[in-house]
Sequence to fold (618 residues):
Amino acid sequence: MIGKRISKKTAVACSCLSIFVLLLAYSFMSQVQHRKNSEDRTIPSWGQLWDGVVFLCKQPNAEENDTSDLLAAALAGTGMESSQSEKKMGFLEGRIIWEASKATLGRLFAGLSAGLIGGIVAGILMGCFLKIDASLSPIMYFSSRIIPTAAMPIFFKLAGIDFEMYVAMITFGSMPIVTLTVSQYVQNFPAELRYKAYTLGASNSEVITTAIFPYVLPKVIDLAILMIGPALVYLIAAEQIVAGEGFGYRIRVLTKATRFEAVYPLIMILTVYAGAITSMLKWFQKFACPWYNVGGR
Amino acid sequence: MRAPGTMWGGGKAMSKMILKINGLSHWFGSNRVLHNISLDIERGQIVALVGPSGCGKSTLLRAILGTHLPAKGETIIQYNNQSRVIESPGRDRGIVYQRYSLFPHLTAQENVAYGLMVDQTTIADRTFRRGAWKSLRKKHMEQAAEMLGRMRMGASLNKYPPEMSGGMCQRVAIAQALVVEPALLLLDEPFGALDEATREELQRILLTLYGENKSAVKEGREPPYTIMIVTHEINEAIFVSDRIIGLSQYWDWKEAGETQSPGATIVYDQPAPIFNPEDERDFMLFRKQKDEILHAVFDPEYNQSYKQYIATVNRMQAEEK
Fold:
């Protein structure tokens, strides 16, 4: 029967099984590759992956053209790479993973915040006031159809290649979609509740802040979670082209050096970050919108 | 149970007009819905509006609420000793809908306190005068709890709407609308989605409010509740109200000189028997009036003068004298 309920144990067992099958498939593919070439790193073995993680966590940060990076890559595994780590650094501070995380997450947070805040404000105004909706809709629809990764050269030219460019690109990529979606949420706010608020004495701004905004907030948080993926796509693509630091930059550098045992962990760490941000937003949704999950949702 | 038209009993007649509708007509394109509605509602009345499906009951209610203004005519509301033409929803009219009756992000208590909050404070007050707002908020929550207690919802103050049954939600919605003391409370088929037992419970709550009106009159005060309930249930209309208004498109418009149906008009306006909350709901007691309403309002074959069943306010006043 469709929708038949299962126990939590069964759900956990199914999830573990699918992950196990995935890992098994990866191990098999890696083994096949290593049988052809024992030095191959395109599908690294588990040992090679661990070496990659250690490299990311221990290797001090360096620019692409800094030979110390390539030197370190060349020295990797020889036991001679520890000279750079003699510098006084925190546990991860100054390491590749730390600097890349700081750069990428900082840009992501700034860009996504600007896109979400701008989109929510514009979306609520468009949803509430039809004049604003009629004025902004054509622009928002058109902008939402522009592919930010295709328009990257324009961003580089207009906003440079510094922090502001990444923020502008993520904002431009996310704000139109957020605006149009939030506007739809607001227009779906039941008219009966709106009239009720007026009959209880609420002004326009009170209807928006005390009735409409709390009503759409949980859906806005769900939307923010959905926007993480596209924002990372724009960001990593831009970092791969012009950045001097960040996950995109590091993936490019390490791919050039064919250090895939470090590229895979970078991608996994980025995925874990996205998962952590999602979990934090879900937690915030539960905290700020306790009514959203009652009643068997 | 009292006979019709004797609400005020031995008390002084309080015939202050709360709502006056003059020549209200409405149409949607070529579809004529309402024709020349004129109606006065007095303070303290509980008026039931009945009619066939699609006759325009909700259209009339929305015109009174101010969300959809009529194409012709005006509606005047009396509130705080001032009369004004209705042009938008306002503080002087409360509303309880059949669905979407409560804000889903607020608990029962917060829903009832919502009106007190937006009515007595502004965003600036709540943002910049936190201390004063906090103590006022405490008073609002106490008032809300007291109102919910009267609706027998005292044990559900912290429940969200999805955690409450339909009947519970409607009790909270009535409390939410009444706590801000509107001049007129509008109920748009409020019990339509509920089972019979719950409907009867809520009908008795309305009778309790009518009882409070009677007590106020006896004590020389103005009756606090004036209610208009739109319902398609004739038994309900007769049981809870003291006045029944029938709206119908089945009337002798040709005799009135119209060449095509001009829309629904008032074809029935009679007092209803007054029940106490503890009275038995014996439908045989009002069988005759129910048949009258079915005939005058719901029968498409009826072609007698539509004014036959109009008992005007003046007649009620004459009886009181």
In short: The radius of gyration of chain B is 20 Å. The longest helix of chain B spans residues 196-218. DSSP finds nine helices and eleven strands in chain B. Confidence is low (pLDDT under 50) at residues 2-15, 313-321 of chain B.
